[in-house]
């Protein structure tokens, strides 16, 4: 279709817009936002007559590349260090995608602009595409990569594993609570507009550097749809901004959505890119450099700040704080270290860092070796079973962290940990913003204003609670992270597939029982709890115990 | 000519890793480990469709150890099973009560409840969805282009032009409302990823068909001098014949908090008694006699969507519920109650359409014959679902 005829066709389909005459549609989902003014045009201007052939052509390219990769023996050049992390990533990501599809109808119910519903419906179809095309990519990896364990049971694993639970925020957050908070601000304005840049552009580039050109093939195809979804969010945001009453809610939701995305996406993607790669060229961008380019410059400075003139209150302080977390406080390094500490609770293999890695980290993040080098040397020393326990139960100057009740990533930047009694339970938070999210934002009243549609944080948010007092062998068995010989663990702290070098349930059996930090916290007296807090915030970096005075 | 020394470019170096399947032997290296192993396939061998849809959306009754982590204001998260009054076996069983030291409490009898047994017989996922719809729009474009090039629209009589501009035009609104505000609107509410995907695919076809009709209308406006491209709006908003259908169509969007009822009423009642009645028994039967061989190809694409895809998944979704090992009686009673509610409305709307049968020069088969045909088709669908034909059908 030519551009001119496309414009005419789009104009024609606007005649389909519906004004109810006999029955008003049932409004199942609610919002505390109001839309009384300024309907916006459908920014997508997508007509299905051209959309379907376009997507089919994109599919041809994706599936053609997949056939080529298999015929060309791509997996002879794929780095195992990289592909092991895909067991985590690809177990999570199809759910956020299909949740995005589920969230679009919530917007039909609350955004009173039939023209925008067209774009939202197309986004719904796109998201079905993304979920199934990603699930199919994982299937291809399972069939052709050397170690299928972790891919073959991924959708059971991620529902059981704490990493999967962290990732589920990036899905359940789209489909519950206030429809605008969930499906517009959290999903399209922040997740899709800002953080898919690192998810779907930066990370695939790293995959290619590690011999995997299928991840970029699939995810760049996905990202070419995402760029259209950004327009959906922008149009809804402008509608919301035109109503003064919404500004307080917009400020709340941008703060929550920005911080939660930073905590979750930077933790995961930062780790994949920095610790999952074998590409240690000094001139390849670090995650911090990518973040500065994709998130800070492209999103914050080019997209968000210009919205200030329309009355949007931008969380400048949180953007700067996020950067500080990544650049000064070692957020990504702390997360990667925690993943590796808890390798035995997961379902992929985590390679240790080598001298070449150390040199690269020191070059990119001066001071890295002094903080993390010794711990990673210990990780390598303890990688294959040799009469010792897994690293989590050995003395390596690392204090097992408490989890953040809100984002569920542990409180790794220890000095920032906040403790509070909320809903009758003592909870730890990784940062004051996460405490605010739980205790103030996700409540039916916000700063004196009724917010009856706002969602709730629910569930067993600390994974360790479920296994408090269990032996590690039973934990791993219960989760099902065991290979087909019935004893070798799916996860390993190295990449050696020699069965004699692999950890088994027998090695787990001799370890001390797993303890839930939160259960223990709630068993403490007030005095003990305060002493715990005072000690915790003096710990770190790299999980080191508080210095003894 | 001078030469300059090239510095080595900084690019990642290919490395031979030998990380392909079968390169080494170790626990889980066998071909048997290369299949998704967390669900029980519907048939002996798991299908590609199942691999890309089943279990993508979690269920606390399966493996969701920490439970839902976000809820609505009332604390409910995920895809509550009570968002329809229909029931599948197992739904009244309590969810595992997890807590301190409980472990994951994984499902022992997957799928735990009957909703997870649904498989879309169309096996819709992204590849099938785009292939199918791209083929439809390509074929339609070719048909219309060919008609335009051969001046086929010159054969149309004035009465037929009026009929198409008003009535074929009016139908685009029905498809649009059903696509967006019935099928897509309920896509959030259904219980599993297989339902969600089938609903999204159904919605997509409806929205496409609505746009096919709108764009066909645009082409006719450009090709036929006397064709009024805005007349469909007047017919839809004002013609008495259309107000009954419109009323039922809008009522489908207003079903109170029951995705099952909305989809059942749309695909089991509305479509055969009104959709096929209009599309097949009026438009497609009338066109040839009125010199029009193009409109039936456009209408026929939508008709094929319903007959071969939308209805197929609907029967696979609802028929097992009338045979459900635990709730068959409950579901049958509910379906019959819904039939009693929706069938009279649909028949009343059908009768309001009757004057359309007299508007064209070359008359289609009689309205009563068309309606009988629609009723007979409807009764057959109810038979496939294991339901009784309601008394109201005799009206």
TrEMBL record, chain A:
Superkingdom of origin: Bacteria
GO function terms (MF aspect): monooxygenase activity
Catalyses which reaction(s): propane + NADH + O2 + H(+) = propan-2-ol + NAD(+) + H2O
The entry's keywords: Monooxygenase, Oxidoreductase
Pfam family, one: Phenol_Hydrox
Full protein name: propane 2-monooxygenase
Enzyme Commission code: 1.14.13.227
UniProtKB/TrEMBL annotation, chain B:
Pfam families, per the entry: Phenol_Hydrox
Alphabetical UniProt keywords: Monooxygenase, Oxidoreductase
Coiled-coil blocks: none
A GO term, aspect molecular function: monooxygenase activity
UniProt catalytic activity: propane + NADH + O2 + H(+) = propan-2-ol + NAD(+) + H2O
EC assignment: 1.14.13.227
InterPro entries: Ferritin-like_SF, Phenol_Hydrox, RNR-like
Chain spans, region Disordered: 1-32
Top-level taxon of origin: Bacteria
Biased segments, Basic and acidic residues type: 1-11
Presence of the UniProt keyword Oxidoreductase in the record: yes
Leader peptide range in chain numbering: none
Protein name: propane 2-monooxygenase
Organism: Pseudonocardia sulfidoxydans NBRC 16205
């Amino acid at each position: 279709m030519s551009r001119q005829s496309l414009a005419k066709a789009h104009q024609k389909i606007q005649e389909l817009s519906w004004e109810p005459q006999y029955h008003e549609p049932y409004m199942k989902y609610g919002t505390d936002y109001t839309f009384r003014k300024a309907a916006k045009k459908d920014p997508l201007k997508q007509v299905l007559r051209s959309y379907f052939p376009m997507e089919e052509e994109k599919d041809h390219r994706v599936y053609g590349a997949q056939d080529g990769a298999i015929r060309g023996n791509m997996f002879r050049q794929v780095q195992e260090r990289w592909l092991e992390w895909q067991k985590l990533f690809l177990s999570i990501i199809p759910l956020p995608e299909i949740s995005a599809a589920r969230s679009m109808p919530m917007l039909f119910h609350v955004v009173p602009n039939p023209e925008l519903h067209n774009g939202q419906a197309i986004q719904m179809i796109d998201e079905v595409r993304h979920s199934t095309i990603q699930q199919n990519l994982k299937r291809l990896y399972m069939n052709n990569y050397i170690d299928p364990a972790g891919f073959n049971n991924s959708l059971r694993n991620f529902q059981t594993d704490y990493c999967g639970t962290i990732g589920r925020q990036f899905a359940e957050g789209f489909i519950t609570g206030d429809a605008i908070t969930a499906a517009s601000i959290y999903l399209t304005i922040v997740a899709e507009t800002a953080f898919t840049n690192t998810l779907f552009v930066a990370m695939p580039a790293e995959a290619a550097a590690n011999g995997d050109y299928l991840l970029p093939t699939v995810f760049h195809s996905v990202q070419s749809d995402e760029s259209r979804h950004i327009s959906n969010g922008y149009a809804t945001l402008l509608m919301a901004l035109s109503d003064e009453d919404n500004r307080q809610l917009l400020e709340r939701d941008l703060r929550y959505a920005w911080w939660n995305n930073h905590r979750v996406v930077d933790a995961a993607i930062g780790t994949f890119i920095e610790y999952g790669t074998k590409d240690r060229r000094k001139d390849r961008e670090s995650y911090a450099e990518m973040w500065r380019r994709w998130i800070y410059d492209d999103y914050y400075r080019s997209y968000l700040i210009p919205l200030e003139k329309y009355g949007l209150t931008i969380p400048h302080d949180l953007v700067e704080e996020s950067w500080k977390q990544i650049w000064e406080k070692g957020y990504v390094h702390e997360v990667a270290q925690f993943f590796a500490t808890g390798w035995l609770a997961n379902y992929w293999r985590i390679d240790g860092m080598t001298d070449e890695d150390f040199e690269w980290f020191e070059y990119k993040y001066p001071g890295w070796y002094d903080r993390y080098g010794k711990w990673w040397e210990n990780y390598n020393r303890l990688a294959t079973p040799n009469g010792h326990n897994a690293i989590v139960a050995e003395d390596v100057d690392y204090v097992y962290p408490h989890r953040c009740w809100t984002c569920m990533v542990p409180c790794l930047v220890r000095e920032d940990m906040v403790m509070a009694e909320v809903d009758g339970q003592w909870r730890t938070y990784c940062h004051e913003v996460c405490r605010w999210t739980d205790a103030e934002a996700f409540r039916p009243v916000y700063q004196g204003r009724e917010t009856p549609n706002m969602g709730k944080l629910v569930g067993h948010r600390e994974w360790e609670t479920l296994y408090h007092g269990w032996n590690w062998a039973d934990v791993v068995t219960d989760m099902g992270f065991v290979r087909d010989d019935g004893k070798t663990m799916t996860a390993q702290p190295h990449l050696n597939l020699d069965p004699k070098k692999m950890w088994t349930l027998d090695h787990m059996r001799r370890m001390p029982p797993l303890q839930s930090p939160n259960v223990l916290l709630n068993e403490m007296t007030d005095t003990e709890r305060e002493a715990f807090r005072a000690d915790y915030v003096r710990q770190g970096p790299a999980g080191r115990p508080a210095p003894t005075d | 000519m001078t030469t300059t020394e090239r510095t080595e470019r900084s690019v990642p170096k290919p490395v031979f890793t030998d990380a392909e399947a079968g390169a080494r032997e170790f626990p889980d290296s066998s071909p048997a480990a290369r299949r998704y192993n967390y669900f029980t396939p519907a048939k002996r061998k798991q299908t590609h469709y199942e691999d890309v849809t089943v279990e993508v959306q979690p269920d606390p009754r399966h493996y969701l150890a920490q439970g839902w982590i976000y809820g609505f204001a009332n604390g409910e998260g995920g895809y509550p099973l009570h968002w329809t009054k229909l029931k599948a076996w197992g739904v009244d069983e309590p969810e595992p009560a997890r807590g301190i030291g409980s472990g994951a409490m994984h499902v022992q009898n997957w799928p735990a409840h009957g909703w997870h047994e649904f498989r879309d017989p169309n096996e819709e996922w992204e590849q099938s969805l785009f292939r199918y719809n791209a083929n439809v729009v390509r074929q339609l474009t070719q048909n219309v282009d060919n008609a335009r090039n051969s001046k086929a629209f010159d054969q149309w009589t004035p009465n037929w032009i009026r009929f198409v501009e008003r009535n074929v035009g009016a139908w685009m609104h029905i498809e649009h409302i059903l696509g967006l505000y019935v099928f897509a609107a309920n896509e959030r509410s259904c219980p599993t990823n297989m339902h969600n995907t089938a609903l999204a695919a159904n919605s997509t076809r409806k929205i496409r068909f609505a746009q096919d009709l709108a764009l066909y209308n645009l082409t006719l406006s450009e090709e036929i001098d006397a064709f009024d491209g805005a007349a469909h709006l007047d017919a839809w908003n004002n013609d008495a014949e259309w107000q009954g259908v419109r009323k039922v169509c809008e009522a489908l969007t207003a079903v109170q908090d029951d995705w099952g009822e909305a989809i059942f009423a749309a695909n089991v009642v509305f479509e055969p008694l009104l959709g096929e009645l209009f599309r097949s028994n009026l438009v497609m039967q009338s066109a040839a006699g009125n010199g029009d061989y193009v409109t039936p190809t456009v209408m026929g694409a939508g008709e094929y969507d319903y007959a071969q895809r939308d209805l197929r998944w609907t029967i696979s979704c609802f028929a097992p519920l009338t045979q459900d090992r635990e709730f068959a009686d409950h579901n049958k009673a509910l379906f019959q109650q819904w039939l009693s509610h929706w069938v009279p409305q649909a028949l009343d709307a059908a009768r309001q359409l009757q004057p359309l049968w007299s508007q064209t020069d070359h008359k289609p088969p009689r309205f009563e014959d068309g309606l009988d045909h629609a009723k007979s088709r409807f009764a057959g669908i109810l038979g496939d679902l294991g339901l009784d034909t309601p008394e109201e059908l005799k009206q």
